[in-house]
């Protein structure tokens, strides 16, 4: 029987590449996003990752007897601005909805739908391990995502037995949106999406390659070479 992957944010740049990569390796793929996925076998659209809609996703997949081996939250978004910017509090709400509510929603779906020994991966941000005054809402919601993963790794977190929770912390991903927003940048220093999909696939397939549960794994690319390393917040 094929293994199953659920990607929250499966229609985004990173999410759709993860769906594509796992599908091409024989996994059944499920995307949950604000937008329909043309790649995933099952595409469920939502308008919020709130209680009602996450429960309806749980009910829909449970009615089809679907449990997943891996669950990735590739949902999120970015808004810049400091605490004196125009629209600052609106940007806070937007970042909470996109980055934080999605991470909490993924944790909810993980608790309900992951198989024992499953993998849940949330997406934080390397920039957010330090103060981010110029993008304060983005940084704060991503730092909270790092905290959620640490909490999910505790034995009483609600995840099924022997789950592994990992947070990946990208620096800059090589996405179409970044290419159009930063056309003059050095793309050799951005991480190709396939490299991220490959790493998540390795962790999903081979339990012994997974980082310790609760790990924050940062990665950055220099001259087309990507380095992955655990991030220690407290020494
Ligand atoms: P993207 O904007 O291309 O895709 C994000 C997807 O998430 C979109 O399809 C959107 O509809 C969906 N989404 C947003 N909020 C959601 C919610 N609450 N529930 C379900 N779906 C939701 O983003 P990307 O560039 O592919 O980035 C992927 C992840 O990596 C995000 O978490 C992002 O914050 C993070 N990240 C990206 C970069 C980068 O350089 N692009 C850098 C650091 C971190």
UniProtKB/TrEMBL annotation:
InterPro entries per the UniProt record, alphabetical: NAD(P)-bd_dom_sf (IPR036291), Sc_DH/Rdtase_CS (IPR020904), SDR_fam (IPR002347)
Could you tell me which Pfam families the record lists for this protein? adh_short (PF00106)
What top-level branch of life does the organism fall under?
A: Eukaryota
Q: Which SUPFAM superfamilies match?
A: NAD(P)-binding Rossmann-fold domains (SSF51735)
* Entry's EC annotation: 1.5.1.34
Q: Name one GO molecular function term.
A: NADH binding
- Sorted alphabetically, which keywords does the UniProt record give? NADP, Oxidoreductase, Tetrahydrobiopterin biosynthesis
GO BP terms: namely: L-phenylalanine catabolic process; tetrahydrobiopterin biosynthetic process
What EC class does the entry list?
Answer: oxidoreductase
Any one annotated GO CC term: cytoplasm
Instruction: Tell me the protein family, please.
Output: Belongs to the short-chain dehydrogenases/reductases (SDR) family.
Q: Which PANTHER family match?
A: DIHYDROPTERIDINE REDUCTASE (PTHR15104)
Report quaternary structure and partners: Homodimer.
Name of this chain's protein: Dihydropteridine reductase
Q: Which organism is it from?
A: Polysphondylium violaceum
């Amino acid at each position: 029987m094929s293994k199953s992957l659920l990607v929250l944010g499966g229609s985004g740049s990173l999410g759709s590449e993860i769906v594509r990569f796992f599908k091409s390796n024989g996994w059944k793929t499920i995307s949950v996003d604000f937008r329909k996925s043309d790649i995933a076998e099952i595409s469920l659209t939502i308008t919020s990752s709130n209680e009602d809609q996450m429960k309806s996703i749980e009910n829909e997949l449970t009615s089809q007897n679907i449990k997943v081996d891996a669950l990735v939250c590739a949902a999120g978004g970015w808004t810049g601005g400091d605490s004196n910017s125009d629209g600052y509090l609106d940007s806070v709400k937007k970042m909470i909805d996109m980055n934080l509510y999605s991470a909490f929603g993924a944790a909810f779906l993980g608790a309900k739908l992951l198989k024992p020994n499953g993998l849940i991966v949330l997406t934080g941000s390397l920039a957010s391990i330090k103060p981010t005054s110029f993008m304060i809402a983005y940084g704060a919601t991503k730092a909270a995502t790092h905290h959620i993963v640490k909490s999910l790794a505790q034995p009483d977190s609600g995840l099924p037995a022997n789950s592994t929770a990992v947070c990946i912390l990208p620096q800059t991903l090589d996405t179409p949106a970044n290419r159009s927003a930063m056309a003059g940048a050095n793309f050799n220093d951005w991480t190709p999406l396939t490299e991220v999909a490959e790493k998540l696939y390795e962790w999903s397939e081979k339990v012994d390659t997974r980082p310790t549960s609760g790990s924050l794994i940062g990665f950055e690319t220099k001259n087309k070479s990507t380095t992955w390393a655990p991030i220690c917040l407290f020494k």
